[in-house]
Amino acid sequence: MRHNRVAKKFGRKPAHRKALMRNMVTNLVLRDSIRTTLPKAKEARKDAERLVTIVKKGLAEGGNPLAARRAVSAFLQNAKMSKKWRKPSTQAEARKMRRELDPVKRLFDVVVPTLKDRTCGYTRIVKLNRRRGDAAEICLLQWVTIAKPLAGEAPADGAAPADAEAPKAETPAEEPAK
Hints:
The chain has a single domain, classed as CATH 3.90.1030.10. Helix 1 (14-31) packs across helix 2 (38-59), helix 1 (14-31) crosses helix 5 (103-114) and helix 2 runs antiparallel to helix 3. By secondary structure, it is α+β, with helices and mostly antiparallel strands. It contains five helices and three strands; from the N terminus they run αβααααββ. It is globular and about 55 Å long.
């Protein structure tokens, strides 16, 4: 029986489950949006929102930013460089690439400042469709204020989507010469 058991197991051992959630939250921090199954997104959302709360408390008046940075870095994984990043031409370029892929720095400098006005509800889950092979429900897990709108969805601020064409002013057609 699973009375009072909240966490899902996903058919994995505890160490594998922990690594899975850490990987998903790290990718959410680095990419602002991840595509996964609905139960995994619901579990990853808990960890992501907890990390944002830790950072906000650390950056608040009287908070300890070093302790918050250490707590967050203990949870997030180091981002791995893909093949195109493996051979930078100079050492300075290699340092720059590692800095760009630092999830802790990105969380402190980009993600949390955009969420500073919110008290909770930092992420959203957008249901997409079902996966073809096993009919698992697929969704997007994304930050509320950073995420770009989906195709066909209007932006949150009410402006027209960037890819929509602006209406053209009508110009009178030239009459053909006789």
